[in-house]
Each structure stands twice: as C-alpha cells, then as structure tokens.
Amino acid sequence: MTKNGWSGVLPGLDRESIVPLYRQLYEHLREAILTGTLPESTRLPPERALSERLGVNRSTVVHAYRDLVNAGLIEQRVGSGSRVAPRVRLASDKGSGLPWWVTLPPWRVGEFPMVMGELAAKREPGRISFVQGISPDEPSPLGELAKSFSRVAKDPRFVLSYGDSEGYEPLREAIAQRARRAGAGRVDASNVVILTGSTQGIVVVAQSLAEPGDEIVVESPSYPGALQIFQMCGLRAIPIPTDEDGMRVDHVEAILRTRRPRFIYTMPSLHNPTNATMNMDRRERLVTLAKRAGVPIIEDDPYGPLLSPSLPPLVSLAPDHVVYLSTFSKTIAPSLRVGWLIAPRAVTERLLLRKQALDMATSLYVQAAICDYLDRGFDDHVVRLRAELVERRRIAQEAISKHWPAGFRVSKGEGGFYLWATTPREIRARALLDASERLGASFLFGEAFFATSGGDHHLRLALTAVRRSELPEGIRRIGQAARSLHT
Amino acid sequence: MTKNGWSGVLPGLDRESIVPLYRQLYEHLREAILTGTLPESTRLPPERALSERLGVNRSTVVHAYRDLVNAGLIEQRVGSGSRVAPRVRLASDKGSGLPWWVTLPPWRVGEFPMVMGELAAKREPGRISFVQGISPDEPSPLGELAKSFSRVAKDPRFVLSYGDSEGYEPLREAIAQRARRAGAGRVDASNVVILTGSTQGIVVVAQSLAEPGDEIVVESPSYPGALQIFQMCGLRAIPIPTDEDGMRVDHVEAILRTRRPRFIYTMPSLHNPTNATMNMDRRERLVTLAKRAGVPIIEDDPYGPLLSPSLPPLVSLAPDHVVYLSTFSKTIAPSLRVGWLIAPRAVTERLLLRKQALDMATSLYVQAAICDYLDRGFDDHVVRLRAELVERRRIAQEAISKHWPAGFRVSKGEGGFYLWATTPREIRARALLDASERLGASFLFGEAFFATSGGDHHLRLALTAVRRSELPEGIRRIGQAARSLHT
Fold this sequence. Notes:
Chain A has 487 residues and is of the alpha/beta class. The first copy, chain A, has helices at residues 21-34, 47-54, 58-70, 87-90, 117-120, 142-153, 156-159, 169-181, 198-208, 224-232, 249-258, 280-293, 314-317, 345-359, 364-374, 378-403, 429-438, 471-486; strands at residues 74-77, 81-84, 128-129, 192-195, 215-220, 236-243, 246-247, 264-266, 297-300, 322-327, 339-342, 409-410, 418-422, 441-442, 444-445, 458-462.
C-alpha cells in the first residue's frame, strides 16, 4: 500500500503485555508516521482488513485509529477511509521540518505499563472506589499531626534550609530506635537514610545495586510501582510464586542454584496485593539462603508496622544482608512523602549519593513535623488503625459471603489494606471491572501486579479507600456485576 | 610485589577530575582488595615509593592509606608498613566468603563528584559559611506561610491522599497563569507538571529525552547538581563558554553545525554560579538556533522570578521548543521541595510517567499550602527578597573593594544569590579555601561547576547563606586569607 509495503510497518503485537493491544497499535503507527515510514497522505488499511490481518478484534483497530485522529496524525473521511495527515499539520513550526520530539529516543511500548493508573483513577460521583492504597479516613491522625506541623512551621531552621541529604538526624535516631525495638540490634542512625517516600528507595536500590540487563528476583504478584521501576531500569525480573504464607522460598532456593540475581525484592508483611505475611520459618530460610548465596534482600515494608501480632522484619534477622525500606505513607498519611531505608554501612554512602542526585533532600519541614508527631500521637494512632483494619476486613468478609456468587476465592490474613480475590474461571477481571463500574464500584484488576504474565482472574480491593459504611454496598455491587456476567 | 605484579594494579589517576587524587587512589585500591586482586596480607608499597611511582604528592598516598585503614581494608604497623587485612576481617559473615557488596556493579570513580558537599558542609561554630544556596533569613516568608500551612493541615483532602502525579490542579493553574503573565501565551495547566524540587525535573529530562552515550550542551560553568545527574545518566556534556551576558550563543551555533546534541541545558537568568543573565539578543538567537536545528532547550530557571527588571524566559519565546524548570526553593523556602516543569503537550505524558516512577506524587499537603500562600504573602515576599538581594550585593562589593587584594575579578549582575570570583593567577581556589577556613570563612571552590576541567581559580560565595551583618566580616576573612597566600 506504500512503496515500503505494509509488511515492515505492521507491528508485532504482544498479547502477553498488559499494554492494551489498541495502544500498542497506536504507538506503532504513531512512530511510523512521525518518522516518515508512513509518508503524508498514505492511505491506511480499512479497519476490518487490518484487524483480520493482525488477528485482533475490529474494535482494537477502531480505537487505535480514533486516537490517531485525536492526535492529528491521520484524517478520516467517510468513503475514502483513513490517511496520514499532511506534513504541515504535523510540524509544530513552519520554519523547521518535524517537531523535535519526533526524534526523541524511542518510547518503548510496554516500558510504562500505565499501571500507575491507581493514582489517575477517575473519581466519579456515586462510585464506590476500592482503587487507591490510601489510609482510611478514620481513625484520622490529623488532630495531633496538625499540631506537630504548626509547632515546626514557624521555625526557620526547619523551613528555610535544605537540611542534610541523609535526613533529619533526630528522625533517623527515632527510626533506628524503633528498628532496634523490633529486634534489629545493631542498627543505628548511621544506617538510616530518609527518603521521599519508599518508592524513591526502590529507585535508589534499582539504580545502585544492579545494572541494566541484570536479573533480580520478585514475588508474583508484586507491587506494580516496583515492577515499573525495575522495568525502567532495564532489570529482568524472575517471578517467584507466592501462597498464603508469602514467597515460596523453595522456589528461590531452586533459582539460586543456577542463577545469580542482583537482589531479592520481597514484601514479607501484609503484602501488596495479596495481604499475605511470610511465616517465621520462611523468613529464616530466606535469610539463610540469601546469606549463603551472597545475594542481598530488599525488604519493602510499608505495612509491617501495622502487622499484629508482629513478626521480626528480615532486617532484624540479618542486618548485613538486607536493605530495608519503609514509609509513613500508610501509618500516618501518604501526602507526607517521607520514607526511609536501613542498610549496611558499607552501602549507605552509595545509596545516599543516588538519593541526593534524585532530589537533594527530603522536605526538612515535614521530617521535623513527623519527628514531633512520633513522640505524641503516632503510637496511639497506629493501635487504632490496626483495629480499624481488622474491623474492615471482618465487614468485607461478611459482605462477600452474602453477596458474591460461588467460585470466588479471597485472600486470608488479618488486618492490612488489601483484599485480593480470584475470580471463577468464566469471569475475567477486566470484564468484571467494566460491569462493576456500570453498577458504581471499581477496583484494580490483576495484570498490573505481575512482572510477566498473569492476573487476568485477579482483582485487588483497597478496603481502606472507601468509607467504612460504604464497604458492604461496594462489595454488593461487585457481586451483582459478577452475577450479571454469569448469565 | 604480588604474583600479579603492581603494574596492573596501579591506577591511572585522572588529574583533570574533580575527584581528589587520594580518593581515586583509595577507590582503586579498595576495589582491588575487595575483589581479591590484592589478596590478604599483600604488602602495599611504602608511601614514598608509591607517590614517586604515581607522580603525586606523598600526602596523597598517606590520605588514601589512612582511609583504607579506617575502612578496615589494610593494616599498618610501624616498621613493617601496610598490608591488606586478613580476609576474615573483611567478611561480614563468617559462614560466607565475602560480603555481598563486594560484588556490586563497580562504582565508577568520578561518577559522583562529591560536589553535593554543599549540603554536607560542616557548620563550625564561629565560621561564616558562604556555602549553601539557601534563601536569606530575612525577609522571612514564615509568618504568612505558617498560616497557609495551618489552613491546609487539618484538611483530610490534602493530607490523607496522594493526589495526582501531575500535581494539584489549582497550583498548576496558578503556575500557568503566572507563566502567561511572563509572556508564555499558550501555556495552560495541561503543560505543567509539579515536581519534588526542580532537581527532579533535571532527572526526568535526562532520563526521558536522551539515552546513555548521547551528547548534550551545557554551560561552562554550570550547576553541579545538573552536571552530576547528566553524568549519572551517561550523557556526554559539550561545555559552552559563558561571559557576562550568559551563554556564548555563537559557540552553540558552531557546535550545532556539526553535532546533534539531545538538548541544550541553560540557566539564562541569575545563573548559578556566575550570576550572569543572558541578554535579550542572545535569548532570541538561541531560540532561533534551537528551532532551526530541532534541538530542545532545557531552561532551568530557579532564580528567574527574582530577576529585576525581568526578561522573558525562553519558554515564552518558543513554548514548543523549551522544557522549562523552576522551583519555590529560592523564592519561598528550600524545605518545601516543590518545583515544576512546563513542556509542550507532546512530551508531558512521557515526562509525567518518569516523574511518577520516581516518587509517585509530590506532597499534596505542601502543594496545597503553597497554592494558598501564592494568593496571600508570596508576591510581597518576592518584592522584599529582590530588594534584599540587591542590598546584599552592594554590601559585598563594598567589602571586597576594601578587603581583597588586587587581582581578583568578581562577577557582575544585580541581585541573585551568588558572587562568582576569579582568583589571581598565583592563588588556587582550593588553597584559598584552606586558608579561609583557618580564619573562619568558607565557600565553594570552582571545580565542581565544570563538566570537564577548569575552576581551579574560581570560587562561589552564596551571599544569602550568612546573616547580612556577617557579610563584611566573612569577606574580610577571605581577603586576609588571600593576603596570607601572597607572602
């Protein structure tokens, strides 16, 4: 159809990818147009013809073409089909040829799985959204926290200064002290670096302890934010299955017999999304394995402080083999954007320099306020929050027994933010989401939580994201949606 | 001296690097020891012998050996010299061989120029430190700012939520409105992404608009934080000289004739460190050149809002060819860690996804407080701040005329945070710093501001980092130090 023929232009679509097919097709055609592989006025294949050729639904092509029209890259006219728009309309500036962004490094399809949609999820009036992993509205830390904020807000030492890149010393001391109380005997402030949320710690680790192309071990499923970062850094994830007691450590052992991953990334307590907690036996075996193989463990522990009864974090079992990450986002408030890492002293300088290059230092004002709050309302708040999480799960379980059809399986585990469910074979999670949204409830479907493939029969409900009183109704709506798919 | 012989072990020291030679030597020997190239008990060459072999001062070797002793990697005994420490003391865990961090990806000497020492600079009692690029203590924004903080601190919408990754909509609106007021007619909120400080914007740009190995254009001298990020991202900097009217655009033109850098990084207003402001003629020529070549400009503008009389930012001359970065760190307070970027819509999604992967979202609480403050005290504060900067420079100039020996040259330019000085030929900036610190004054010496080499006769004084009343005395001490080096 062009002088190049279509064969070289037609994309190889990745059906395993969590990037929707229409988006893959769009990206591919967009690049072909912008780089001139498809010159202006080229006629694109009719939608039906292209969909047959690619072996996809016609709606996939329709959606891709629609987005190309919206981007001004193609034009559609009734009767004459779709054509590449004239060059002049593509150029941003008449003086030059193409806009400069056409020649940017290729933006690999799938590089960004668009999973962070969690943050971008639309709030629609009346919809009960179990999407965001935020703290419940009650109990609220705001009373005491606002007092801590106002105690530090007038102090120029805290507001008119960058502070140190490693963080506010008294806060690092307080964190080290709490780590020692949890059993990490040798940890002191010199092992602690304050971060702008624990997400930043994942970036720091991925960029400091591995190089593009290196293999790492992750859980399957795992936290999408981490998977996205590892992908961006060019790391290749070896997924390890999990069950109700957390990561299958026997699988890790098998992997370590023949491969040498750079690190093992795990969330052993109140896992996101499964809510599983690794039992004590596995914790000890994982640490022993990691020591023997000389492979460090990255322990991501945003929810650990909410675990009750508590289990010793991995870092307390082997402080020299674990880089520990946590945050105040789940125990106090996500808007603080303050987390921390605990690492063996031999690597803290390396990690610190990377953190420093990312954003110089974390807000000293917020750090100082948190430090103040730790001595005031924090511990009481965490006790109340734990009780709330247990109660919400009880309510959710009750509503599920009442409203969901047979065939669903639901993750166990006390407390925690998330409920992870497996749909019956005949219901795909994406279809359930569509049906649920029509009935006024939403959640995250499972694909985003898997490094390679899987998740099309899983869904995650953040039980904390809705009002407690809305929990039963939200769950009822999802159950109703499931029933509607049965018929 | 070992079975390998020393020749393969002796490092090639880089005399142009801003990494001190002793540190290069230390890093090199450390790696040789940890990887086993220098096995346990290997005797190291005597300090004098090694210094002659390498053609460095003996103190260079003494310092490197001292740090190796401190790190537990070598042992020194009077009479028998220096030996690699026994393996058992190197291992963190008796069960395994070496600690895991020994096998980490190599930490390239020079990767981190240690320049961020600005943040780590020790505050010694009695020392007048012109080091940190922070706002002056007076005028203080704290009165009104604290009120804005407390207005939002009790609102769960701002504290108990992540908000959107692109930032708080009303703040993005306010920023777009101010950009339009500065002449950027087509900018609206959809072009604005909120950042955790403008440093994060440099990371986002370096990782999104270029690939490792790509060339970019930077000013010489330039902001060390940016140079560090570019180096970390594997970008190769082409330095362009600057003068009192900013970047030498004629040199950019010459470069663009034969090379295709990914972007041009410039700080056109109140430049860090030179305080130069690019004149209008050069602004227009730079934009024309960049358009013609299809190379985008990264306009880093932390100080632009303090420029008086103001000049149009580059982004207002060519919104489609400029990614603009700025921050509230200099106009309000560094502890806020809130900056922003303005970019053509064709690249905002790409930049946003990278920002999101770095830290999810910038603190919504702080964003909301800033948004409140913008409508209250901000504009008045900036007016007072500008006047203070002008006054501080007048005081500094006066003290310099009075106290510094002939032969120093000092940068011009009204307002701004920094005074950039060139020492007389016979005085190196490092030596001046040593002498000044003994007399109780400190500053940053110039090497950190140059991508490749240069700066050994330059110093930067942050006129904002000290009390106004201390300015003359601090400058007098540096003058006294300079005189002491003359004799």
